[in-house]
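DM from R.C. (forwarded with permission)

"hey, sorry to bug you on a friday — could you get me a structure for this? deadline for the figure draft is monday and I only need the backbone to look sensible"
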Amino acid sequence: MSPAVKYTLGRIGLFVVVALALWPVDANIFLKLMLAVAFSAALAFFLLRGWRDEMAQQLAGAAERRRTEKQRLRSALAGEDDSAGPATPDGASDPR
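My reply, with the result:
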């Protein structure tokens, strides 16, 4: 399971647990839900730190791969990439 999915399910699970814990409290339902959001966010900050760090590493790796691929494509379009082969002025590959 990907770290992003684990973290998201953990956040949702914490929200549900806190909301159920607040259910017997005599208050407006919207107040209970707002409190559940606030408390679950605070708990997630401490309890889900490992999963949040894993997700951040995964996102950083994906961003680095996109950045590398973007630079490789820019080099190829600029004619700086030797693996692209010679190109004609109209942008098509040279049939030689």
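R.C.: lifesaver. The two ends are 48 Å apart (CA to CA).
me: no worries. The chain has one domain: 3-77.
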